[in-house]
Write a structure and sequence with these properties.
Blueprint: E1 2-11, H1 15-23, H2 25-28, E2 35-36, E3 45-50, E4 55-65, E5 69-74, E6 77-86, E7 89-100, H3 106-130
Antiparallel strand pairs: 1-7, 2-3, 3-4, 4-5, 5-6, 6-7
């Protein structure tokens, strides 16, 4: 049995701006990963790097529907980002599935992933709404 986590945040920008901040590696470097090897496009494998944490990993992009949805695999999980535009704002929903319910560390993994998505969405919101670029890589464990 697999477990899913979902995180949502309202961002006071149109879906096109929120979407572009995810798919454009230069913009993403202002609030999330330090770099990406290319733009997020369907059927691409992209390496995202977090220089501050000495980490990097590949994503395989399964689906991109402009301003509406991005789906990619990330390690053992699948991430779906959905963009719901409402009156000039966007509800961004991130769903991560594929965590194994019988994993002895499932609670810790779910909490860690949920924390990461809340943090990423908070940084994205600060960047898009207020131009804040100093939140990226500030999470300390």
């Amino acid at each position: 049995m697999e477990t899913t986590i979902t995180t949502k945040m309202k961002i006071h920008k149109p879906a096109s701006e929120v979407f572009e901040a995810i798919v454009d590696p230069e913009k993403m470097g202002s609030y999330w990963f330090s770099s990406g090897t290319s733009r997020v496009e369907q059927d691409k494998t992209i390496t995202w790097k977090y220089e501050e944490y000495g980490a990097e990993g590949d994503i395989e992009v399964l689906k991109v529907e402009e301003n509406k949805e991005i789906v990619f695999t990330w390690g053992e999980t699948t991430v779906t980002m959905t963009f719901y535009e409402t009156a000039g704002s966007t509800i961004m929903e991130v769903t991560e599935s594929g965590l194994k319910a019988d994993d002895s560390e499932i609670v810790n993994k779910m909490m860690d992933q949920k924390e990461g998505w809340v943090y990423m969405l908070t940084c994205l919101k600060g960047y898009l709404e207020n131009g804040i670029t100093t939140l990226r890589a500030s999470l300390v464990k």
